Amino acid sequence: MGTNDKISNKLDDVAGKAKEGVGRATGDRDTENEGKLDQAKSNLKDAGEKIKDAFKK
């Protein structure tokens, strides 16, 4: 996996966690759910990159 992809995925994950926390603190369930969705997208992208790396070998 490329370094840029790793950094991008990690930033997406951190942003999702922050959004989830803000949503939880303010009682805004939509924002909380968006944060969880952002984290899930980050995890899927990370898994996709790992699969691509496995096939390159």
UniProtKB/TrEMBL annotation:
Q: Name one Pfam family in it.
A: CsbD
Q: Which residues form the CsbD-like domain?
A: 5-57
Coiled coil region boundaries: none
InterPro entries, per database record: CsbD (IPR008462), YjbJ_sf (IPR036629)
Source taxon at top rank: Bacteria
Q: Which stretches does the entry tag as region Disordered?
A: 1-57
User: Which portions of the chain have biased composition (kind: Basic and acidic residues)?
Assistant: 7-57
Q: Which family does it belong to?
A: Belongs to the UPF0337 (CsbD) family.
Instruction: List the protein's name.
Output: General stress protein CsbD
Species source reads Mycolicibacterium wolinskyi
